[in-house]
Amino acid sequence: xxxxxxxxxxxxxxxxxxxxxxxxxxDVLRATTTIVTxxxxxxxxxxPVGSPDDARAWRxxxxxxxxxxxxxxxxxxxxxxxxxPLEYGPERVAGKLVVMTxxxxxxxxxxxxSVAGGxxxxxxxxxxxxxxxxxxxxxxxxQGGGALIxxxxxxxxxxxxxxxxxxxVLEAMARxxxxxxxxxxxxxxxxxxxxxxxxxxxxxxxxxxxxxxxxFETDVDFCAKVSVSDTVPTLVSGVLVREGSGPARGE
Length: 251
Prior knowledge:
Order of helices and strands: EEHEHEEHEHEHEHEHHHHEE
Number of helices: 10
CATH superfamily: ComB-like
Number of domains: 1
Helix content: 25-40%
CATH class: Alpha Beta
Shape: globular
CATH architecture: Alpha-Beta Complex
């Protein structure tokens, strides 16, 4: 199976829609980790939107809508939750529809949708790496195509933590069978081979250091756990739901 990774979101501009059979988005610090955690803890779904105003427009959808997100790693005024996965416990999100906007991660889903064509889009992170790898293989195989990993980056620039997480997913995919690697996938794997541990990998990055300085040290360590979740968020009609679920708008 052919698999590649784009290490900054703008690289998707060079990809034809439908070129790949499945697409995974990674924003390990912290959007895709938070999305996995929210669904694990009983959220009906997570809607990734582009702006705070887009998120606020969902307030009219009903009392079971929770707004979450950040800009510059800080929670947004008037929102129910920030972007810390530790905020998304069952007492806050069970049975709710989470509408989320973040600096990098939710924008990456728009990028992924633009190149997916009719292909499936999933959310991956370190915590669900093994499950996401298996699902990415299955989905791409079912479409008879390759798989693409979209790294969210930070403010349009390369983020080592996302490339590292992509490499962990790629390694898990390789354990399931042979891969033909594109250049981006090869680059991610080479970088990952120099890292001592997932925790060290995340803490050494610019964004990881910023989160620690802002008091989110526990978040970084939570995001560094590998393959502890079997939850694979899958985009269905604009809503990320647990694998096998349908749209979660409350119809």
